[in-house]
Amino acid sequence: MDDGPDFLSEEDRGPRAVNVDLQTDATLQVDISDALSERDKVKFTVHTKSTLPSFKQNEFSVVRQHEEFIWLHDSFVENDDYAGYIIPPAPPRPDFDASREKLQKLGEGEGSMTKEEFTKMKQELEAEYLAIFKKTVAMHEVFLCRVAAHPVLRKDLNFHVFLEYNQDLSVRGKNKKEKLEDFFKNVVKSADGVLVAGVKDVDDFFEHEKTFLLEYHNRVKDASAKSDKMIRSHKSNCTSSRILSCSLTRFFLKVSELFEKTRKIEARVAADEDLKLADLLKYYLRESQAAKDLLYRRGRALVDYENANKALDKARAKNKDVLQAETSQQLCCQKFEKISESAKQELIDFKTRRVAAFRKNLVELAELELKHAKGNLQLLQSCLGVLKGDT
Amino acid sequence: MATSSERSPPPFPESEDQEPDPDPADGDSDEGEDIFTGNSKPAEIKAERHQPPVDVTAKLQRDIPSSDPLGDLDGSGANKKPARDGRQADLFTEPRSDIFSEEAAARPARPGPASGSNANSSSKSNGIHSDEEQDIFAEATVELSLDSPHSERKETPKPVTSTESSVAVQPSAPKTALKTMAELEEEESEDKFELNISITNPEKVGDGMNAYMAYQVSTQTSLPMFRSKSFTVKRRFSDFLGLYEKLSEKHAQNGYIVPPPPEKSILGMTKVKVGKEDPSSAEFVERRRAALERYLQRVVAHPSLLQDPDVREFLERDELPRAVNTQALSGAGFLKMINRATDAVSKMTIKMNESDIWFEEKLQEVESEDQQLRKLHGVVESLVNHRKDLSINTAVFAKSVAMLGSSEDNTALSRALSQLAEVEDRMEQLHQEQASSDFFVFAELLADYIRLLGGVRGCFDQRMKTWQRWQDAQVTLQKKRENEARLLWANKPDKLQQAKEEIAEWENKVTQYEADFERISTTVRKEVLRFEKEKARDFKNQIMKYLESLLHSQQQLIKYWEAFLPEAKAIA
Known about the structure:
The complex is a heterodimer of chains A (about 400) and B (about 575).
Chain A: E1 28-37, E2 42-50, E3 59-65, H1 66-78, H2 97-108, H3 115-149, H4 157-164, H5 176-192, H6 197-240, H7 246-318, H8 322-390
Antiparallel strand pairs in A: 1-2, 2-3
Chain B: H1 13-17, H2 22-27, H3 29-44, H4 51-62, H5 68-83, H6 94-106, H7 112-125, H8 132-145, H9 149-155, H10 181-190, E1 195-205, E2 212-221, E3 230-236, H11 237-251, H12 266-274, H13 279-301, H14 303-307, H15 309-316, H16 331-349, H17 357-407, H18 411-490, H19 493-569
Antiparallel strand pairs in B: 1-2, 2-3
């Protein structure tokens, strides 16, 4: 396998328009055609088009929930056969809490603001909710597409069940005991250490990025919200205050219009930055975690292999259970080699993918920033021109 | 100014003719001086209502050939100028004549009697202080419009020595034949600022809790009423407050809007005193410096306040007596607080019969505008804070992107990431600058106007007080009359005489107070109009400046991202 373009499907971080650049064959195409947001869960309609013989039909859809995606992911992780592959990271839990809270607060504070303000804020919050919704759908879709694109994972039985079985999978979330088990496993993992330093570093700094970006974008959004408030009071300032002479009122009106527009642009800037930069980094954080896991597994396999070797030597020395030791040593050897083989390829692919994704997103980010800045500039220039002409 | 003292006014043939004349005029130096000040005063005063005086001068100048007495006046005036020590700089330069001719022509067009009456009322209003020059001038106007120059000469009251006014009218006034109101206004606006004030160089003087910041106040002016063209003095914050106290004592009761100074800030000053060199105290000092500068500029922009000798003293005098009664905890401070309390109470109890609806409307507008400005100010402040936050976060982000870039092994990507870090770094600075511009240009403007509106409200209150005084006087007069009637009925001749005297006295008072009220009403009206004009201009200018700063930031942003784009594209 060369560093094919096949695995460049991760770049689609945008909303529903997922132009998944899967391999050219149409043997398996997966997408999320619809999604419904209910009180505390989201129902995804997973739509599959396939020419593979293993499926009963060529095209079919099922309804899945987030927990089922997680089940699928975990089944991959726990499957030893896939130890040598980077398992596509699980999609994050749909989190509408913040948005819902805001909507609620807005509803409560309805009396304290003007009708106009209220409808505006409501629209904004609804748009925000919608954006989060779209993002979560996209994340789930990307996960499925990655699985479908992977030459080995796509053949997984659980995956097929996931795609086809149109009854409820009755996947239950992990109960407490299992969660505790997971926790210990993680501790052991980190204690074991990781091999490739490069990946580790990158991972750490992705972690950094994520935190700061989140704050950053909150700030930008806040700033645009504040400037919105400012425009609104500008507007009310000039409509209700007759003390301003006619020209000054017009002046203020124009200025407030200007601020309204620039605020919209700034909001878009914030959204774009969020999309291109924050999401990119968040996704690669998860992917690099998956890569780390792969390396860990390889490390474990190596340790097992070495242990098996030692045990074999001991057995040979004592001349007891030699056959048993030999078979286990063989197994470990095979496992290790298998993992190593695929791991190398996977990691190289991962790097390529990453670089390409970064390139695409950074270029798009820069272009969008430029576009918006130019838009802002134009607005300001025209407004200033009009105002100067007025006086 | 001194340099021009010896210059004789060559371009005026009339003045040459009048060479011998100055002697008699010189003889009554007092009067001549007044006339002269009468001539020149008008030009210096920039307010609209002083336009007539300019015209006066014009008429004087031009009508020289036509009317002798005026010519005399002018001649003496003209020659007075060089005789005096460098008072007039530009009064009698050639272009002047043009202006004056125009003005003279337009003179009849001017609402003479109206301005005359205004001038008259203002003459009565101004007290003993330097504003009297206006009186002379106003009276001169009146007299000339009635075409009796001689009476003008006799009418001039005692000389005003404090101001040696100079005509600062620019010779660049439009040279059209007919001078219209618009042109006069234009000229008035060209009269503007012959006076530039800047406050620089805040220095900490002294140590510990007795330390204070000394600011350098530099003035550049071509107004002859100052001793030199440019001078600098050191002032501290309490000096500014003292100036405000003095000005408001004198003028507020006449209905002038005295610009309020920036607020005291115990916390801010304590930090400075203690000597903390952190950016917040530097910002505080800068903020105060800018506010003081704007305050002084507003004070001198007000034509009547500029005439006040206290203002001049403030700008010129090297050592000012310490204004102790501005301290918050002094006796004077307490007295002020008590006064303010009583004022507030009386404001609530006085219910004025508003005869002129204009005032009521205006007051309402002022109130609502005040509210709006406060809201807006709050929002702008939060915007500033958010931008500051944004810049902090951007800085942190830039650092971590840099680290990410350094750990990335793909060289092109690594380079791109470090470029991104640089871009974000620059954006941080940009945001920082934008925040401070937001603040200094916009938020401070709003804060200033909120304070100024307080001043406007104050002058409305003064008017109400004057009205109250008038009403009270009327009531007293009524009582006295009743008293007289009773005495008449009771037939007590001796007390009757006294009663009659009292009645006469109170009748006078009533008329005086009524006139006061009329006067203050007019003053308030004028002041409010002037204030509105100034405010419109101020807001426009500042907001445009603010928008321009926004524009600039966007341009910078574009530059940075354009530089980054090729790097991003170069990632292989």
